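During the reporting period, we have paired protein sequences with C-alpha cells. One record among many follows, to show the layout:
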Amino acid sequence: MKNALSMYWRFCFLLLGLLITTEAVSQNKPSEKKPEIKELDEVLISNNAAQKSKKEESLNVETVNNSFIQRNLGGSLMQSLQKLPGVKTISIGSGGSKPLIRGLSFNQVIVVENGLKHEGQQWGADHGLEIDQYAVNRVEIIKGPSSFIYGSDAVGGAINIKPLPLPSQNTFGGSVDLTGKSNNAQFGSSINLFGRNENWFFDSRVTTMDYGDYRVPTDVVHVYSYAVPLYKNHLRNTAGKELDFHLSSGYSGERFKSVFYFSNVHTKSGFFANAHGLEPRNVDLELHDKSSRDILMPYQQVNHLKVSNTTSFQLGNHAFETQIGFQNNFRREYSHYVNHGYMPPIYPEDKYAPQDLERQYDKDVWSFSVKDEFRIDNHQITVGSNVVFQQNEIGGWSFLIPAFTQFNAGLFAYDKIELDEKWLLNGAVRYDYGKIKMKSYYDWFQSPVSENNQTELEYLQRSQDLTKTFDSFTWSIGANYNPGKLSLKANLGSSFRMPIAKELASNGVNYHYFRFEKGNPNLDAERSYQLDLGMEWKAQNFSFQLTPFVNYFPNFIYLNPTSAHDIYYGAGNQVFEYEQSKVFRYGAEFQTRYYFLKSLSAEIGAEYLYSEQKSGSKKGYTLPFSPPPSVLFGLNYEPQISFLKEPYFSVDYRFTAQQNNIVPPEKKTAESHVFNVAFGSKIKTGKQDISLNIQIQNLFNTRYLNHTSFYRLIELPEAGRNIIVSMKIPFSFLR
C-alpha cells in the first residue's frame, strides 16, 4: 500500500510541475486568448442548469450529462455512473449491472427513462438494466426516498434518465459512436439520425455491441471449495451481444408538444460457466476454452420493448402533461437439464418447455399518468396521478416465483413556496394503493410424500393462489436557503414499498446462489423515514458539498439464511426465508474541488454508510451488499491548445476500505487501491467537433474484490486492466 501511495503522489507532483510549466508558457501566447474566453463562456452555461436544480430541490440530486458518461464509459450505464459518491453497482460480468444507491438496490431503487418507470425483472442480482447508455443524454440521480414523486419502490432513490433535447428547427443530421475495449475485446457502434422542420421532428438510434469473455488478474478462482483454473485469465462464457433500437418522433409547438417514444433493447450474455447451475464442476473446459467469443450454456437472453407517448400543453396558467406507456420484458435463462431431487433422470419429450429452458419470465406493463403544474402567488403547485398494471407469466422446467398480476395507483400533490430570493419551502403528500395476485403452481413431476406410515407420489404445490392489498400515505417537507455562495438544504420524508412476488411467494432453488429461497405471505409493506441534509459552497476556485442522511426502517424486508435445508429439490441447499426487521442507517457523501490554476484542479469524493438491524433473527448485523467506505482522489488538467477543443487529462486513485461488517454467508472484503487514467479532446473539423476519449481502467492490473459484486461470494476479483477508446463523430446539415 505504501509503495502504491508513494508512486501515486510522486506521479502527481511530477505531473503538477510539468503542467504548471505548460500553463505558464501557454498563457504567454497571445494567439490563444480568444479560445480561452470562448471555453469559459461554455462552462458557465452548462453549469447553470445543474446548479439551479440543486438550489431548488431539497432532496440530494446529482445531474450528469452525456459528456460525463463518455469520459467514464463502462460496460453499462450504472458502471459509467459509479464515480459519483453514494452510487455503486451490483455487477454481473462486464455488460450487466443494477444501481446501488446508499446501499439500497433491487426494488428499492427505481429507474425512469423518458418519464416511464422501467419495469423488468429487477428483483434478481443477476438481472441488469435493459438501458442503452448511448441513448442517454442527461441523468438525474436522486439520493434518498422519492416515493412522493414516483410511488412504491423509490424508498432508496431514483435514476431519472431525461428525454433527449429536441433537434433544432430546420436541421438534419446525426452522429456515429465507436467504442473498443481491450479487456473483453469489445467492439461497439451506435448510429444516430435526427431531423426537424418547423414543428415536426424525429430522432433515431441503432446500437450494437459484441464482446468476449472478460479477463481477471488471476489464473484460478475458488467456487466455494472447488478450485477452477482459468484459461489465459478469461472468465469462461461471459461473452455477450447487444442490439438496440430507439425512435422518438412528434410535434412541438409554442403551447403544445406530443412525443412518441419507441425502444427495443435485446441482449444475450453468458453466465460464468463454473459458478451457475447444478453441476459447476462438470463444465466441459475444452469446449468453453476453444473460443473467448462464443456464448454457450448457461446464458440469458433478454428483450425489453417500450412504447409510450408524452403530451404536454398549456391552458392559461396551467401546464398539463399526460403519459401513456406499454413495455414488455421477455427474459429467458438457458441451462442444461440436470435432474435433482425427484425430477426424472431424462427430461420428458412431451413437456411444454424446451429441455434447455431453465426459466422464463414474460412481463407486460401498461401505465398511465397525468399531472398539472400551476402557480398561485408565490406557490408553484403540482398535482398528479398514475396507474400501472402488470402481468408476469412464467415458464421453463425450474420454478422460483409464481406468475402474478399487479395493480398500482397513486395520487400526489407538491407545493414549492418561494418566500424570497434566498428561502424556498416545499411539501408533498401522496396516497398509494396496490394489489398483487399470485397464481398457484404445482410441480410437473411427482415426489414421494409419507403420511400415516404410507408413501404416495404427489405433484407438490409450490405456490398457492394468494391476493394481497396494500395502501399508504407518504409525505415530504423540505427547505432550501441560498445566501450567495453558500447553499443549505434539509428534507424530512417518508416512503413506502409494497412487497413483490418473490418476497411473498418464492419457493425454489436459486441456482445462481446454490440456495433455496422461500417467500413469506405475511409480510407488511416496507416503510422508511429519512432526514437528508445538504451543504454546498461554491466559489471561483473552490467548491465543496456535504450530504449527510439518517434513515430508519420499522419493517425492512430481507432474505434471512436459516439452519434448515431442503429435502425435495436436490443437494440439500440451505433455506433462506424472507423476514422483516427494524433497521437504522446513516451516512454521508463529501465532494470537494480546488482549482490551482484555471486549467488545473484536484478533487476528492468520499462516502460512508453504516446500517444495523435492530430486531429479528439478524439483530446487530448490517444489511446485505453494504458498500464499504471509499475515497476518490482525482487530478484534472484541461489546457488551452489552439487546434483542440476542451482537451483534458485526468488521473484518479480510489481507496476502498475493508468491509468487516457483513451478514453471513457474505464474506469480509479486504481494502483495495485502484488507479485510473483518462484523456481526450474534441477535434475541430469545420463546423463539427469529433470527440475522442481514452480510459485506462485499473491501470496497474490490480487484483481486488468488490464487496457489492454478484460474484463476490466465490472470491472472484474484478476485471483487470481495460483500455477503452471511444469516438463520437457528429454530422449536421441545415435545411
